[in-house]
Design brief:
Helix 3 (about 90-100) crosses helix 5. The protein has helices spanning about 1-30, 45-50, 90-100, 115-135, 240-265, and strands at about 60, 65-70, 110, 150-170, 175-195, 200-220, 230-240. It has 5 helices and 7 strands; from the N terminus they run H-H-E-E-H-E-H-E-E-E-E-H. The longest helix has 30 residues, at about 1-30. The N and C termini lie far apart (about 85 Å).
């Protein structure tokens, strides 16, 4: 009788744990689907795209050295040391991308500063070619480059790992299932600096969570072959892309910077005609 009660309790416990596992996995699948190919072009912040454009587009510049990874964080691995960084070393490219997609490209005018040396060389070649082609001496000069009124600077200032960890498992009659999860956090800082005065006009912080999930199932049975033990184990893990998480954090920072700029009247709304 006691054995039957024990088996009944274990059965209820195992079935209830399976439902918890399913709920946990459904929550994770709502965050993103690992089976789908990630389309970067579909990950723009809807709020950033739909933000109202200003009356006059501000001209901004982003230098590669002015928006970098300052964390020095390496990819986490429990088995061996990894020398790959946890965060991309070109976050300035994500910042430029977010600026160009604000209000579908109608908010900021972003000037090229990443390949400024190459741009200058090409302009010199154009001047040289025009001077040789035009014989009457009335050579038409190359239009001057746009200069930025403000600079956007900042950094990835924190990558905190294992902020939240947990898991659960259950086993009954040689059949078991377990799941583990982990949450990391990326923090970036973004500031807008006046070129004319050097004053920091706006400074914002933005954070994004990186979610990791793993599960495993195992079965073992004793066989009537001496003392041999047959065991089968399966498992998989899913990790949210840190690059996509950083991209969303940058988009959030740009959106907050735009809203603060409207509040402080650094730019004004375009009047609808």
């Amino acid at each position: 009788m006691e054995t039957q009660r024990l088996l009944l309790c274990l059965s209820v416990l195992f079935l209830s744990s399976c439902s918890v596992f399913d709920q946990f996995e459904d929550t994770y699948n709502q965050r993103f689907s690992a089976n789908d190919v990630v389309n970067i072009n579909e990950l723009h912040s809807i709020a950033l795209i739909n933000v109202q454009p200003p009356k006059v587009q501000p001209i901004v510049a982003v230098y590669p050295s002015s928006f970098t990874d300052q964390t020095g964080q390496r990819k986490s691995n429990s088995s061996f040391a990894l020398f790959s960084t946890a965060v991309t070393q070109q976050p300035s490219a994500l910042l430029i991308r977010a600026l160009k997609h604000a209000s579908n490209g109608k908010f900021f005018r972003v000037v090229e500063r990443v390949g400024l040396d190459n741009l200058t060389k090409e302009r010199q070649l154009i001047r040289s070619a025009r001077e040789q082609i035009i014989e009457d001496g009335a050579s038409k000069g190359v239009p001057p480059l746009l200069f930025a009124g403000v600079l956007l600077e900042g950094a990835v200032i924190a990558y905190d790992t294992n902020l939240t960890t947990g898991g659960m498992g259950a086993r009954y009659l040689g059949i078991g299932k377990s799941a583990q999860y982990r949450k990391d956090n990326i923090t970036i800082s973004l500031r807008m600096v006046s070129v004319a005065t050097g004053e920091i006009l706006i400074e914002v912080l933005s954070q994004k969570t990186v979610f990791s999930y793993g599960q495993s199932e195992d079965i073992f049975r004793f066989r009537e072959m001496g003392t041999e033990l047959v065991e089968v184990e399966l498992g998989n893990s899913r990790n949210e892309s840190t690059t996509i998480a950083l991209m969303k954090a940058v988009e959030g920072a740009v959106l907050e910077l735009i809203n603060i700029g409207y509040e402080r009247r650094f730019w004004s709304y375009e009047k609808n005609t």
